[in-house]
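> run fold Lipoxygenase
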Amino acid sequence: MTHQEIKEIIRECRKETKIEYPNRGGFFTPRFKSINHIEVGRSKIISNPLTILAEFGHVIFKKIRSEVQRFHDFLFPRRARVFGKNFDSKISGKVTFSRKDGVAKPIHHMQVEFWAKTWWFQWRKLGEAMTNDQGEYEISYDRKLAKSPAHFNLRMEVYQTTHIYFKEDKAVPHYSIFHKMWVRKDDLKTESFLLENFRLDFWEYRDDYPAPRVVIKDKEKDAPQYYSQARQDVLAQQFIPYELTKAKHLELLKLGSKKISLDYIQKDYPINLSRCIEQRIPGYTRSDEYFGHRQMNGMNRASFFPDSSHPGEYWVKYFGSCKYETNGIYAFPDAEIKFRLDEEGLPLPIQIILTGPLNKFEKDPLIKRSFSPEDGTEWEFAKRIARVSGSLCTEVDDHFTGTHLNTEQYAIAAYRNLRINPIANLLLPHLKEVVLINHSADKILLKDFLPHSTALTEKGLKDRTRDILGMQDWKGFQPMDPISPSHDVAKTDWMFWEITEKYVHQFVDNHLEEIKKYWLEIYCFSKDLVEHSVPVFLSDINKNELDLDLKAHVQNRYDYYCFKYGFHPDQKRETIKGELKAVSPITQHHNPENVSPEDIKNLKDCCVYIIFVATYLHTWINEHQYDELGELLFNGVGLRYGDQKKGILAPETDLSIAPDLKSATEMLWIVNLLSRTEFGFITRNEEGDVNPIFSKMLLEKKEEFLHLGVEVENIESRTNI
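> ok
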């Protein structure tokens, strides 16, 4: 079979396995109450007919209540007009973040409004102001009007920006009340009144996670933002079939049914790319050619490090359990794979080095084994081990940490600081909802699934995310360079990067005066980023104190990560409280007059990086997961040691090293959840929250992207799954 025929079959299988589930269910079809009710075990779904009827009644009640509220707002609107004649009095105060370490940090540029409500339920705005650089506000108002008997209550309200929408190419912010405080008429005795400070739990940082994360105590009630109803509806529509499949398997396991097996579980889920190809070209997915192709242009999007001693050869390296806490049930060795390019520029593996225990009897974490194609069956076993180690590294390092957590650190700093600076309109549409899905991932991935289906414990996973985040920085980052004409992912990386660069530069140049005018927001954004950044990976250890083997291993890992993540170790960085911070500052200036051309360049570079990571980079890894992880015996995120001395150096037929049945259905459930429940795309712009200029730029390159296997319509506008 020719290469062209194989490519055509792969193309057909990609089309066949891109399954979507239209909502064909009836009234009594099971449904999720919300995204927040998804669980690795038994998700909270509504399936009982009586419960569905009750929930339907509750939904109708909420809709009626919403319509009543809309009618009330129509009858008693909140008009922009400020009421009053003699604005001779002032009410002032301060808005700060909740106290941390005894320091109340001011919140700049928050909208504060003074409102009165009449006995006829009409609202009257008595005054408004915006907090200054120190979080202080002062509102002039008509005291006589405020104390009028016609008003039965007075209150001060603080507003936050919840969404950015676009009408054509004009940004329209949407504000909502974040906090309110009642004001007593008796307090308004003099011309000046100092109201007690607003101390807000506003996008606060967690102190129980080793990386910058936002505080969410109750995801239903006090999250800093919420999913739109449209996003929740799409997930329920797309995902219920998978949820019911998993629920059936868990029930069979609970009953001790002999009917259920790995093969039974596999057949219950949709066919994935590797299974489809294997049906049409038996043995091809286990070939060296397919192995190299998927490493280069699949979910892993591997970074090919040139071998300095052998031109034309490259290394791809996955570092396994290393020093992290493990459970002793699953193996997670390092896998270093050496490739040579074939005549079409696709990588062929010529050597695999596995470092670490391959069975439960070995204790040396640095024991090495080398394999080559001449090793026959052991070469096939080594490729499978490398696939699995590579997949777990891709999921934890590149997907969850490199896109999800990386984006969250920018989202928190942005929502805490960007309000009236135009950069808010540029970034916030691409940063929304990531903190919500990450909060769900804490339980679904870090607590309930990965510690029971891979080698790493919850603590090991958290420590690893901190280390990997310590290699992520916007400054100096560029996409990977193509190593051959067949390196499609690197080509599309650069295409998207250059489009985003053009979009960001054009936006910043068009709004430069306003950006400089409110430069304080950029300064505070940068300051929060750097202060809460994790330390640079390995900057807190003395490598010279390590023994020679461990030192060489650590240095090997560090050097490869610098290459892989585009991290520049010699770059000047800030040290805060003894920690060398990974994220570089955008600016050191808070005064608009001191803004330099370098500051503007830094701002542009940082914005390009943020949008690239939150949209395209996340999309690539996310939508390819089921391609790679949808066949249980071929790939996965964990191989059990088993009880034999050979350990994981064994064939696919050895089920003692395969996932157990519970982990098997949970893994296929999770990769379907992540790959197939998407909502919020740049060019589709379902909620009108993406700048149409950006969409147009992408659509102009639609055919070029498609030639390289990317549909621009499927590039997500934010990280929300």
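The first helix runs from residue 3 to 17.
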